[in-house]
Amino acid sequence: MAWLVGMTPKAKKQASSLPRKVKDALTLLMGDMEADGPVRGDWPNYGKLSDTKHHCHIKKGKPCYVAVWEVSDKAIKLIEVQYVGTHEGAPY
Question: pTM surpassing 0.70?
Answer without folding.
Answer: yes
